[in-house]
Amino acid sequence: MAELSFPIINMEKLNGEERSSTMEIIHDACQNWGFFELINHGISHELMDKVETLTKQHYKKCMEERFNELVAKKTLEGVENEIIDMDWESTFFLHHLPQSNMSELPDLEDDYKTSMKEFVVELEKLAEQLLDLLCENLGLEKGYMKKAFCGSKGPTFGTKVGNYPPCPRPELVKGLRAHTDAGGIILLFQDDQVSGLQLLKDDQWIDVPPMKHSIVINLGDQLEVITNGKYKSIMHRVLTQTEGTRMSIASFYNPGSDAVIYPAPELLEKEEVDESQIYPKFVFADYMEHYMGVKFQAKEPRFEAMKAMESVPVSATVPIAFA
Ligand SMILES: [Fe+2]
């Protein structure tokens, strides 16, 4: 079988003669991969190195022992078949928008908080820049996606800081079970030494190559809905490894909880989409409430469930959500 080449976007080329071919690679990646990897994205390598060092230090100091005591020692005892109800990961969450929770996290040291804040401001800018590139490729007006994500309080932006520790029996447990992401656009700063992230393409699991100072991008279910399936969220998973701890800093630029998500009318008109092929319209918080229970299942039944809810009044009573 021919080797598939994972899409890598050199963002510097967006400023020069190769702009249109680079835009085409982005469009193809959004349609056929749901994933791409950015290089020369403008975020300082020095800042990324600092975030990496501090994240790894924080894991060693505050998380590793807890993981070994609570998970590593007990989980695999006497197990013969693959464990399908847990993930071999150690994580914590940072919320940035609409409100930061950084000051409420007692075990984060000040320089870690400062570097993280600086980093996520850059990521937020990058996310909005990417959404506009997607709009351009789709023929939607600049700012359409951001507006679609806004709701009454603006988009939700948060980071899952994860570490995937070594596992003595990788065949028995995944670092993270296969799923598509529920939200908008996801920006991942992953370890450049320890691999493990894979995406599903044409029924094959393909490695997302670790690359120093790159940012991996993937699209969530909401972009699939807004583009009415033109762009896709893609199943991905993390394998466990016997050696090394894999760092994964995933930032989720998502709709606000009360944002109403629906296919862009302009795209439906342009493509003359048949009524039965139109994706659902819903309040994002309702989608998240449903997603939490079925995250590790196929996305299609989720879209169908939302479609079925269209006829009943929606309520936005669920807490702020991101995943
Ligand atoms: Fe994910």
From TrEMBL:
Q: Where is the Fe2OG dioxygenase domain?
A: 155-255
Task: Return one Gene Ontology term, BP aspect.
Answer: cellular response to fatty acid
SUPFAM superfamilies under this entry?
Clavaminate synthase-like
Pathway in which the depicted protein is active: Alkene biosynthesis; ethylene biosynthesis via S-adenosyl-L-methionine; ethylene from S-adenosyl-L-methionine: step 2/2
EC number of this enzyme: 1.14.17.4
Among the Pfam families in the record, one is DIOX_N
Q: Does the keyword Iron apply?
A: yes
Enumerate the UniProt keywords alphabetically: Ethylene biosynthesis, Iron, Metal-binding, Oxidoreductase, Vitamin C
List the GO molecular function terms.
1-aminocyclopropane-1-carboxylate oxidase activity; L-ascorbic acid binding; metal ion binding
The family line of this record is: Belongs to the iron/ascorbate-dependent oxidoreductase family.
Q: What is this protein called?
A: aminocyclopropanecarboxylate oxidase
The organism named in the record is: Papaver somniferum (Opium poppy)
